[in-house]
Amino acid sequence: MSSTVLDFEKPILEIQEKIEELKKMSLESGMDLDKDIKVLEQEAEDFKKELFANLDPTQKMQIARHPERPNFMDYVNLMCTDFVELHGDRVGTDDRAIVGGLAKLDGKPIMIIGTMKGKSTKENLEYNFGMPQPEGYRKALRLFKHANKFNIPIVTIIDTPGAYPGISAEEHAQGAAIATNLREMQKLGVPVIAIISGEGCSGGALGLAVANKVYMLEHAYYTVISPEGCASILWRDASKNLEAATALKITASHLLNFGIIDGAIKEPVRGAHTDYEAMASEMKSTIKQALDELSGMSVDDLRNQRYDKFRKMGAFIEG
Questions:
Q1: How are beta strands 213-217 and 192-201 bridged, if at all?
Q2: Which pLDDT does position 204 carry in this prediction?
Q3: Do residue 50 and residue 66 come from a single domain?
Q4: Least confident of 40-49, 99-108, 181-190, 224-233
Q5: Which residue range(s) make up the domain with 126?
Q6: What single-letter DSSP state applies at residue 166?
Q7: What is the pLDDT of residue 226?
Q8: Residue 16 contacts residue 1 (beta carbons within 8 Å)
Q9: What is the pairing mode between strands 98-105 and 108-115?
Q10: pLDDT, tens digit (0-9, with 9 covering 90-100), for 73-88
């Protein structure tokens, strides 16, 4: 198991501890306990599958926020070759919360860009906990335009609790930077694929997600506001995050039904953090399939499809 055990996973850990005790007893006493061990192992497997097939939104959030979840560079290193990182917004800043560059996916060039989180305090400070500044969105826009100029498909991988909400970001026009990305991504004449790999919060995620195909990992979430933030506004009580998450419909299954995303990418049973290679393989297969579907479309068709996709989002009832 992962070194970090989530609260709702503790019953699995208890069963596995019993299994280890029986194995140790069998070894020390010479007793044949194989039958009992197999029964417990099957019980653990069945419980695990049932548990993870029926997670509530806040449990999925815990997996999406797991400290050992693969980050952007983990996916790049496992899926791609020849990655060359491109730095800076050409104004003077290189925001480390957004990382991107040229790479090859099975020998074919792509521009791959994503939000970056760290796995230690030092790394999280470097990457600002995955919360981009305006300069990060401007860097991403520069790479989008570079890919467009040279007819290179774009892949974005998004895992962010939101754009950085600090005073410095507002002083540097955070809202305008995100709004510019929304407008300019719509104009791109190359295939754009976006994947929400963990957290996908608010405009901070959408600033990289105006795409022809939008996917989510099975236990990721995508929302206009974090459930804790929503609960704080509506009930002035962040502990009501389950009620907020349920109302917001933030999970892949809900968003697929609403037509917000184009597909959910299956994760290993306990989440992406338990098997990086398997998760990267699933993600790579999805990207390749999407690129194959989009490769035959003209520039105008790509733009129109992207425009129509986002115009159709949302619904209302007139009373």
A1: parallel
A2: 95
A3: no
A4: 40-49
A5: 61-311
A6: S
A7: 92
A8: yes
A9: antiparallel
A10: 999 999 999 999 999 9
